[in-house]
């Protein structure tokens, strides 16, 4: 059964949490805390909507949303992590990655863009990179938004049938859907090998978009308060 929230509760909680998130972002600025937030999940899981609600009241000068697509020719001539290093935030700022370096162990693994040796090696490379960021004082949050296969089909069909959403659906999305089970295996292994105390994965049940958005906000506020309190103790 999908976790949900009624409309009245959602509106009240959303406003409250967005105001708290705004305050946390301001504290990050004044306390010189860098923050990296990663969003991963199946196609149509609701990553974009969650990011919009998370950042709604934040000062846009203090954050950047970085959508990740396939690497270009220049990026392919470097180590796969190179293009992400260029977007890591300095102190005071928040960087939000809409998909991330985890593509190495997800789409690049499934589509054969990385050899088995390369994507197997990536788990430790990623853990080491995130550990260095943590040691620098960066708050690392990684959200995996999960939906089931039936819900994804509903969302795909909605996108095809609504003119203002048509741009969100491509032939590639349908091809990826055919590899659903392979992606589930890759997600499971990713969680097992890269969930750390310094860069934890947060599973977000996403069949109900409103529930998912609130869970993302709650976790950002909770972890944000924790790292701010640590600076004072």
SSE arrangement:
Blueprint: H1 7-30, E1 35-41, H2 47-55, E2 63-67, H3 73-76, H4 82-85, E3 94-98, H5 107-110, H6 116-136, E4 139-146, H7 149-161, H8 171-177, H9 180-194, E5 201-205, H10 209-232
Parallel strand pairs: 1-3, 1-4, 2-3, 4-5
Helix pairs in contact: 1-10, 2-10
The radius of gyration is 18 Å
- Portion of residues in beta strands equals 5-15%
Please state the structural category. alpha/beta
What is the CA–CA distance across the termini?
42 Å
Strand order of the largest sheet: 2-3-1-4-5
Bin the helical content.
40-55%
Sheet of most strands: 5 strands, parallel
Please provide the count of β strands.
5
Q: What oligomeric state best describes the polypeptide chains here? A: single chain
Average of the residue pLDDT scores: 95
Low-confidence stretches: none
Principal-axis shape equals globular
Order of helices and strands: HEHEHHEHHEHHHEH
Number of helices: 10
Descriptive overview:
Helix 2 crosses helix 10. The radius of gyration is 18 Å and the shape is globular. The chain has helices at 7-30, 47-55, 73-76, 82-85, 107-110, 116-136, 149-161, 171-177, 180-194, 209-232, and strands at 35-41, 63-67, 94-98, 139-146, 201-205. A 5-stranded parallel sheet has the order 2-3-1-4-5, sandwiched between helices. It has 233 residues and is α/β, with parallel strands linked by helices. It has 10 helices and 5 strands, in the order H-E-H-E-H-H-E-H-H-E-H-H-H-E-H. The longest helix has 24 residues, at 7-30. The termini are far apart.
